[in-house]
Specification:
Number of helices: 7
CATH superfamily: START domain
Order of helices and strands: HHHHEEHHEEEEEEEH
Strand content: 25-35%
Number of strands: 9
Shape: globular
Radius of gyration: 19 Å
């Protein structure tokens, strides 16, 4: 993990409720929340180890998948035909293993989404993915701000300020290590691994600050994203997989964070996939 830091950026959003406002609304419950361990800066070591083992297996499967044109993009699941994709549907699959429920103090989430873009080109997709400065334009309101820290060829390090909303709104500064690769001009992929995730209190105000390690709530501990894309004669197939790690839900407090940690992984993936399709379908 990278050293903790504050980006120093200010992004104004008068209508956004911060993590701080959420906490203040729950002041009467704080003694009980503290006792239940709601504040959780880092996942338990066993959960981190299990997540690392899981994504290592996932990345091995993708590496094998990307060695040949056949199966470069995983086919639709049984009963969901290619015709649905060509008609503009997004196919979303939950791949989370049942064993994720056994992680100590944490929850693992794994989702995959597939789409087809008529007339899409692999080169346009790669150009879109590498244009980090335009992410706030294409992926608003989730992505609020982006900055490239370094670039060496197809390897990038970037930071993004992101906003997630489901019952509550959480703003985070997230840092990623990102690598792009390709089998040939028609087949490519990217691997994005989070290296630091900080929760932001009172974003866009004079009181903005990065929460200390003892204050964070574990809404998102890890997030890895994997894109696969394949250009064919009629257009472009794009596929995204996300593997994330969040805190588990303390007994009796599912009403506070349950909807957030359970719903956001899927909704975020679907939003990203749909926004990507929209961006590629617009005149460029």
């Amino acid at each position: 993990m990278m050293h903790r830091r504050s980006s120093g950026r200010r992004t104004h959003s008068a209508s956004t409720h911060s993590v701080g406002s959420f906490i203040r609304a729950l002041l009467p419950f704080l003694p009980f929340l503290a006792a239940s361990g709601l504040a959780a800066a880092e996942p338990p070591p066993a959960a981190s180890s299990a997540f690392n083992t899981y994504v290592a297996s996932l990345e091995l499967r993708l590496a094998l998948q990307h060695r040949s044109q056949n199966g470069f993009v995983a086919p639709p699941p049984a009963g969901q035909s290619d015709l649905r994709l060509r008609q503009g549907e997004l196919i979303i699959e939950q791949l989370t293993p049942s064993s994720s429920a056994d992680l100590p103090g944490a929850m693992l989430h794994h989702w995959r989404g597939t789409a087809f873009i008529p007339g899409g080109k692999a080169a346009d997709f790669e150009r879109l993915m590498k244009d980090f400065n335009a992410y706030p334009q294409h992926y608003a309101p989730q992505v609020m701000d982006t900055k490239i820290l370094s670039q060496q060829g197809d390897h990038f390090q970037a930071v993004m300020r992101v906003r997630q909303k489901h019952v509550i709104t959480v703003v985070m500064d997230t840092a990623y290590d990102i690598t792009f690769g390709r089998l040939d001009p028609q087949h490519g992929y990217s691997i994005s691994r989070s290296t630091q995730i900080d929760e932001i209190d009172s974003p866009g105000t004079r009181n903005e600050r990065t929460l200390k390690s003892t204050e964070e709530h574990g809404f998102l501990w890890r997030l890895n994203t994997y894109w696969s894309y394949q250009e064919r004669e009629a257009g472009l197939y794009v596929q995204i997989e996300s593997a994330s790690l969040t805190r588990s839900i303390p007994t009796g407090f599912g009403w506070i964070i349950g909807p957030f940690v359970k719903s956001v992984p899927r909704e975020s993936l679907e939003f990203t996939l749909r926004s990507t399709c929209n961006a590629l379908q617009k005149p460029r």
